[in-house]
What we know:
The protein is 27% helix and 44% strand. The chain is α+β, with helices and mostly antiparallel strands. The chain has one domain (46-256): outer membrane lipoprotein receptor (LolB), chain A. A hairpin with a 2-residue loop joins β2 and β3 (74-82). It has helices at 3-47, 111-128, 233-238, and strands at 56-61, 64-71, 74-82, 88-94, 97-102, 105-107, 139-149, 152-161, 173-179, 185-192, 198-210, 213-223, 242-248, 251-256. The strands form two sheets. Strands 6-5-4-3-2-1-14 form a seven-stranded antiparallel beta sheet, covered by helices on one side. Strands 7-8-9-10-11-12-13 form a seven-stranded antiparallel beta sheet. It has three helices and 14 strands.
Amino acid sequence: MTIRLLIFSLALWPLLNSCSSAGSDEKNALHSSHRTDSLIQLMLQAHGSHIVGQSSVSFDFRGRSYRSQRNGGAFQYERQFADSSGAVVRDVLTNNGLFREMDGERQPLTPKDSTAYAGSVNSVIYFALLPYFLQDKAVNAAYAGEAVLKGEPYHKIKVTFAEEGGGEDHEDVYVYWMHQQQHTMDYLAYSYVVNGGGARFREAYNVRSIEGLRIADYHNYKPMLDTRDVMVFDSLFEAGQMELLSEIEIRQITLSK
């Protein structure tokens, strides 16, 4: 090999090595993405989440009645309750927005009120029917390692949201703990920035099946430490560093396909 060729080969080596490394990183990222997608599909299957997409699910939560009706991408969410005057309030959220009725009459709403009511209705139904909504296009899911909670093995899945399609809460961060053998979502945590921000950790209990759809109530915790790093909430929970705030209880559940 001539001196000139040797110099050229040595100069080319870092470039080739860099390309090889970049290709390896891309391959690993793709493998990780496929693995995460596969785990989410297993979790959806374990929960019977496919039922939600073509059915009507009704339930009561904290004295108010809710209903989710979906037909693929089309949806209609409803909330109904009696206000302090005894008037029956009905909030309806669809792909086209939200409207409110009082005793059957449509009410004018300010943009601020409409956004607030829509967020409230959507939030309750979102949590009640998880993990169904992990299929949304705005979801960015990534595998986040393994954990052991109460002696059971779990996969951790971290979820963030794209700004487009992610709603006003697109800055929220979620972590889901999926049982490695049963593929059930037994724990979840989330941090949020609206209304001053905060973070919560939920533990499923009173798990039951309603015509194949897995429904759970949740113990709702907050960290005793001043942190919103939901990635470490499993460790804090195991260390007894979570404070129980409330019980999230879903009642009077009915499902029609």
